[in-house]
Amino acid sequence: MSDDPMVPDATVRVLAEAAPDADQTGQFPWTGIRAVHESGLLESTVATRYGGQGAGLSDAAHILAALGRGDPSVALISAMTIFTHLGQAAKNHWPDDLYQRLLGEAKQRPLLLNAARVEPELGSPARGGLPATLARRTANGWSITGRKRFVTGAYGLTHFLVWAHTDEVPARVGTFVVPNGLPGIQVIENWKSLGMRASGSHDVEYTEVEIPAENALDLVDPSVAQQDNRAHAAMTLALTAIYLGAAEAAQAAFIRFAHERVPANLGHPIARTERFVALSGEIDLLVSGARQIIFGALESNHGDAERLIRARLLAGRQIRDAVQIAVRGIGNPGLNADVGLERHFRDIQSVLVHAPQEDTSISILGRSAFDRWRRAEAVQLETSTTAPVLKTA
């Protein structure tokens, strides 16, 4: 039985069978996305008040782990929509008519939503700063102009959620729902990554793209618009489940190879040798340990951001190390596309590049550790100055 029972095994198989070709061509992975859509997984986190299943973040992570075993690029594209519905379930920040209309569309075709936030000059908002992308008021709504980077699934998205500042005085910052296919939208094909090739995380240029007035979300003063990396810690950890799935697929490929490879001078599968038994144990320790770390932290989440950040870093590093051990253990065949490990190895390198990146996360933990020490010192000092002095005879 699967560790992620919300996802049919048949869906994972469709993704896995289509993944090598999608990886080679870099084309949008429609076969996998349609399979996810037909399984109803894209809307799994829609709130029950809208007639959805109301799946939570831990459920979403289980879904993403299963999809990651099939094709992590498809899982990443799917995650953006799954997380968007999760955000609406919690914050209820979309205009009701607009959101209901999108849910109606989802019954007919894959509804794919993704935030377009990173910019060429700004970089990742996780490091601070405000967008250069401009939302200009028009007679009928807004006109969007700017360029975004790393827009995962760019070609297949039905809507971009574009982070921009307004031309108002004073200016506000918010998210603008921009339907794909409108005049003025250009996808710039510059996604040439080592792995996650089918995610199609290209740049997108918006030039005077007209949208209705109601397509604006969360317009706030720029002073409160900075990305809160602590607040997003649980969701970022859930995203790591995609790469857990890829590592589990790599583990399966390693085990299959160990049982099918029978050297003539050995006369039996290399899986029976002590070396490969030990390698298998090392890989299992890291991969299964990462699963325990991810879901243990998510399922006992008490709002402790540092614990979630720590779990993400530990799990991510273990996942990365496990696949490297598998490739190194098999040797030259492990670098051949036929075994399957080579693609998993490339994809897994992205595990800790999502915002906030590894160095930012480490800095959060470092500052937190210093803060804890300072608080403890302050308490100790206060205790020592207020404690009664015992007189001696």
TrEMBL record:
Keywords: Flavoprotein, Oxidoreductase. One of its GO terms (molecular function) is flavin adenine dinucleotide binding. It holds the Pfam family Acyl-CoA_dh_2. Residues 119-208 form the Acyl-CoA oxidase/dehydrogenase middle domain. Gene3D superfamilies: Acyl-CoA dehydrogenase/oxidase, N-terminal domain, Butyryl-CoA Dehydrogenase, subunit A, domain 2, Butyryl-CoA Dehydrogenase, subunit A, domain 3. Residues 239-355 form the Acyl-CoA dehydrogenase C-terminal domain. InterPro entries: Acyl-CoA_DH_C, Acyl-CoA_Oxase/DH_mid-dom, Acyl-CoA_Oxase/DH_mid-dom_sf, AcylCo_DH-like_C, AcylCoA_DH/ox_N, AcylCoA_DH/ox_N_sf, AcylCoA_DH/oxidase_NM_dom_sf. Residues 13-80 form the Acyl-CoA dehydrogenase/oxidase N-terminal domain. It comes from the Bacteria. This is Alkylation response protein AidB-like acyl-CoA dehydrogenase.
